[in-house]
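I hope you will forgive my troubling you with a question about protein structure. Could you please explain, in whatever detail you think fit, how the structure tokens follow from the sequence? Thank you for your consideration; the sequence and its tokens are set out here.
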Amino acid sequence: MDSRYTFARHALSRQHVNWRLLQETKIVRIGIFADTHDHLDHIRLAVEQFNRLECELVVFAGDFVSTFAIPPLRKLNCPVIAAFGDSEGHHDGIQAGMRIIGEVGFPPFGFRTADGTKILLTHHYDLVKNLVDGADVVIYSHTHRPLIRNDEQGRLYINPGETCGWTYRKPSIALLDTSTMQAEIVNLPAMASPPVLH
């Protein structure tokens, strides 16, 4: 792993998030994805996009599903910080595979980039809706529906949608620029329609 990055366990209670410094260099472009559900082709497409867009960090918001989803991430040109989802089949195996490229943990947890951006990461938004105070960005998934919005305090919420495309057949990822606090959804090539059986 790139020695410029320091990953640490992140303490979280139901009342307080302990914002730990994630890394030592300024991160500007963050790639975000979730709900891969073992769709290896779409994981590879997401990795290609993140590398092409020169992401300096990739954040995963849960539901790799199995260890098969981890090896394609080794082609990323940056580290990954990931949260487990609710469909993971082998936590220990996923954790072991992730040690090479980043860290994975049980959500929710928070981290802070060197430019001061505080990011709260979870799979289920319901787990953090009472913990968002102090966060600049809340990244979540589970619904498989992409969404970017700001609340009344200007806090940015990002759901990258589903990378797998299994549910809505519209695979997507998201990008976050911490220097402008702007995010966008990036659609991956659409899945082919299922065959019509006669």
